[in-house]
Amino acid sequence: MSNSLKYPSGKAGLGPGSLVHVGDVHEPITRLAVVSYNQNHYEQHSVLSPDEITAYHNKETITWVIIEGLSDASVIEKIGEQFGIHSLVLEDILNTHQRPKLEENENYLFVVLKCLMPNQDKFSVSYEQVSMLVLDNIIFTFREKTDPLLNPVLKRLEKSHGRARSAGPDFLMYAILDTIIDQNFEILDRLDETLVSLEAEIFSDSNPTLPARIHDLKMEVIRMRRYLAPVRDMTAALLRSESALIHEHTVIYLRDVHDHVLRIIESLEIHRDILSSLLEIYLSSISSRLNEVMKVLTIFASVFIPLTFIAGIYGMNFEHMPELKWAWGYPAIWGVFISTTAGLLYYFRRKGWI
């Protein structure tokens, strides 16, 4: 059992091809399962050791080996020795901070990408690296954890007797890619619902937590795009590939996956712009409310400033102020107050300030 490293920087000083797991340990035990099938046959069972996989290598069936949990680097190393996989490729499988990419070898294809899965409580996304090795009649998938992501592919193989069972590992690679990438459409649907909810909150009472929530959501969208943008290059590379492992009849399906990736990335760009607009609208609405408050306060201040000025004059208590002895001085000053206030309010209304 190899020690896991949290970040790639922990491998500083190690030689190229050093097999050490890098990333979070989601599964402490590495589990292996084998699915063997052709048009008339299907079997699925767990295996305890990579040594049991070699028996399927030369069979007249397609073999899908599912490895869940990457903390035990010795299992990955054993697979590499048995099937002639370069140590640098094995190193990339164990490093879960890989950028999505395609690498072509004479005897196999190596595909790595991030799987995005929505969390259930609030809108947030969890990430898992999925790596694939595609050989002549066998395909390996390396996953960080155990979850039902690939169950639709397994059910399709078990129940179908058509192309899914009669095609080669390249078609299985397409089916896995299609399942992982189409998972993002569910995330986009939930993102749409979250944006509608945020928009409703913006135009209701102000919520001081709203800017932070919009910012966190925008950062999540940017993170999603960072993981999905390289997938566009990877699927484009698959379409351009001249590898004998990718048959001509599979290319049209890979083109469909590529189109899905383009749609998802374009949607993320749109959602990122919408989030920026929502934040601007929120700040504008807060500024508008503040302006309304300031306008009311300014009107009150403008009305009371001349009244305060007049009251201040007659509050100076000089002995020889003639108005202080008038019998009608008090009603007169109230008349001045009322007429001044009425005149100012009329003036403000004529100007359209109130």
Please describe what this structure looks like:
- This protein is an alpha+beta fold and 354 residues long.
- The chain folds into two domains: 31-68 and 98-284, Beta Polymerase, domain 2, CATH 3.30.460.20; 293-351, Magnesium transport protein CorA, transmembrane region (Methane Monooxygenase Hydroxylase, Chain G, domain 1).
- It has helices at 73-83, 87-94, 151-159, 163-166, 169-202, 210-240, 248-313, 329-351, and strands at 31-38, 41-47, 62-68, 101-104, 109-118, 125-134, 138-143.
- Strands 2-1-3-7-6-5-4 form a seven-stranded mixed sheet.
- Helix 6 runs antiparallel to helix 7 (248-313) and helix 7 packs antiparallel against helix 8.
- The radius of gyration is 35 Å and the shape is elongated.
- The termini are far apart.
Assign an overall shape.
elongated
Q: So, CATH architecture of the largest domain?
A: 2-Layer Sandwich
User: What string gives the helices and strands in order?
Assistant: EEEHHEEEEHHHHHH
Strand arrangement in the largest pleated sheet = 2-1-3-7-6-5-4
| CATH superfamily membership of the largest domain | CorA soluble domain-like
From the N-terminal CA to the C-terminal CA, the straight-line distance is: 76 Å
What share of the residues lie within helices?
A: 40-55%
What is the typical, i.e. mean, pLDDT?
A: 87
Number of strands: 7
Q: What is the number of domains?
A: 2
What name is given to the CATH topology of the largest domain?
Answer: Beta Polymerase, domain 2
